[in-house]
Amino acid sequence: MNGLVSAVGPLVASIPSPSQHTWYLGPFPLRAYALAILAGIAVAVWLTRKRWAERGGDPDDVLEIAFWAVPFGIVGGRLYHVISTPDPYWGPDGDPLKALRIWDGGLGIWGAIALGAVGAYIGCRRQKVSFAAFADALAPGLLLAQAIGRLGNWFNQELFGSATTLPWGLQISDQYLPAGYESGTLFHPTFLYELLWNVAAAFLLIYLDRRFRLGHGRVFWLYVLFYTLGRVWIEMLRIDTAELVLGLRLNVWTSILVGVGALIAFIVIGRRHPGREETVSLDAAEPEQAGAGRPDPGH
């Protein structure tokens, strides 16, 4: 086979990849990756508005907070991707200007969450609402947004897994095949694995939140835990270029460490603050806290 990985079988049952990822309205390109990100944001905002209202918040708060969180998250996601996958940008044949081409794909979830949280915190402070309560309302929507966003990877024919003989193997066009693989080789559709995992986790979060009336950030930390559990095994299937630490991909280690931290946070917060907040408004919470230490005027 001249050192090539042979095709793993005829394409009897497999998932085709889209033949096109960009369309044009006159001179303006419409890229599937960008559309998937925007659709995910729209779904997250829609669901978060409903969940925020159920917690006693003003649904319009969500749009105001998203105004800060979304751009912060996009910048953070791109920074993490460029730092954790530097070769295409800073390597021997890299092009630093490609770091600005977000529409070509490449957003790291950890950077998006970290910097997006900073933006959300700013928005929450401006709206005078609890950041922890908002994070709880947002968590299932984040999972759905990530699920929809993975469709962009499908259109771009990127971030797929190793070769497979499974009937749901993913077809990859010859121009996107990694070096050493023959035409017709099927690959694990990791975009689909993560999509299904995230959707299932989102519904599980909603159920657990309603069943146990979780609050004070515990829904968010469960989101982090559920996501990292899936990301570990999905990441280990991928064959795209990645930084390795002690033989494992950087994102595997990140998922393990963040997942452990999320579990600890969930347990500690649950012991300190069982149940859910009485109010999501900081203005309403402050008088209650101030009044808690005052003597009863009737005594």
Defining traits:
299 residues, two-stranded antiparallel sheet, two-stranded antiparallel ribbon, 9 helices, 6 strands, 58% helix, disordered N terminus, disordered C terminus, glycosyltransferase, membrane, Lgt, cell membrane, EC 2.5.1.145
Question: Structural class per helix/strand content?
Answer: mainly alpha
Proportion of strand residues: 5-15%
Rounded to an integer in angstroms, the radius of gyration calculated over CA atoms is 22 Å
The number of strands is: 6
Shape: globular
Q: How many structural domains does the protein architecture include?
A: 1
Binding site for a 1,2-diacyl-sn-glycero-3-phospho-(1'-sn-glycerol): 150
Subcellular location: Cell membrane
Family: Belongs to the Lgt family.
Pathway: Protein modification; lipoprotein biosynthesis (diacylglyceryl transfer)
Report on the structure:
With 299 residues, this protein is mainly alpha-helical. The protein has one domain. The protein contains 9 helices and 6 strands. The strands form 3 sheets. Strands 1-2 form a two-stranded antiparallel ribbon. Strands 3-4 form a two-stranded antiparallel ribbon. It is globular. The model is unreliable at 1-12 and 288-299 (pLDDT under 50). The chain crosses the membrane at residues 30-49, 61-80, 100-122, 129-149, 191-208, 220-239, 251-269. Residues 279-299 are annotated as: Disordered. Keywords: Cell membrane, Glycosyltransferase, Lipoprotein, Membrane, Transferase, Transmembrane, Transmembrane helix.
